[in-house]
Amino acid sequence: MNSRNWVRLFLTTLAVGGISTAFVGFAVRWGEYGHLFQQGKIGEIVAVLTWLVGVGFIFSLISQMGFFAYLTIHRFGLGIFKSASLWKSVQIVFVLFVLFDVAYFRYKFFQQPGEGIGKYILLSVFLLAVGLLVAYTKKKQTNKEAFVPALFFMIVVTTIEWFPALRTNEESWLYLMLFPLLICNMYQLLILPKLLTHARIAKADK
Q1: E strand map for 64-134
Q2: 3-class DSSP assignment, residue 34
């Protein structure tokens, strides 16, 4: 992977973060921003859009730091456990623990009087569904060995990146941060093999 491809990955992921946050931001906060469109306040719309894109850039940077940290951790894990199958088992345990944590512990800390655990479980189920979909796509794109690491990255690493919003538990921020992180993480995970292929071809042509 040459520096040109790293720069390309950085800039495109930054753009993905900014654009996705802009769309998600207007969607999850439509009650707050909808009147701007209805009243045709272009200046205020542009100001909000600029702010959302800036926030999206921050989310993208968090996602990229998480991605490169995961690449290091993955190699480190393979070195420690000396067995790909054992390292996969460890990752699955972490995935299950995080899914349980996102549902149960959030419920214990943030439940309102009379509130059930249902919506907390749904968020974990959604995270699992996205993780499985991306991991399956990654497996089809590369090989079956990529499934568990991709699942681990999409669930465990995304949740760690998402922690500031999880801690505050403010609903609009939960979704405003979650969706761009998922999109950026998915993008990086699926685009990396293509960049590596391009790098190998470029090297072979020299």
Answers
A1: none
A2: helix
Question: The pTM is what?
Answer: 0.91
Six-digit token pair at 42? 């272009």
For residue 8, the number of C-alpha atoms closer than 13 Å in the C-beta half-sphere is: 12
In order of 46, 87, 146, the CA distances from 116 in angstroms are 39, 35, 36
Ramachandran class of 177: left when φ > 0, alpha when ψ lies in -120 to 50, beta otherwise: alpha
Of residues 182, 176, 178, the one with CA closest to residue 26: 176
Per-residue pLDDT of 6-63, as tens digits, reads 888 999 999 999 999 999 999 998 888 888 888 888 999 999 999 999 999 999 999 9
Cα–Cα dist 86/198, whole Å: 32
The alpha carbon dihedral of 75, 77, 79, 81 has a sign of negative
Q: Which of 73, 94, 88, 185 shows the shortest CA–CA distance to 146?
A: 88
CA distance 166 to 109: 11
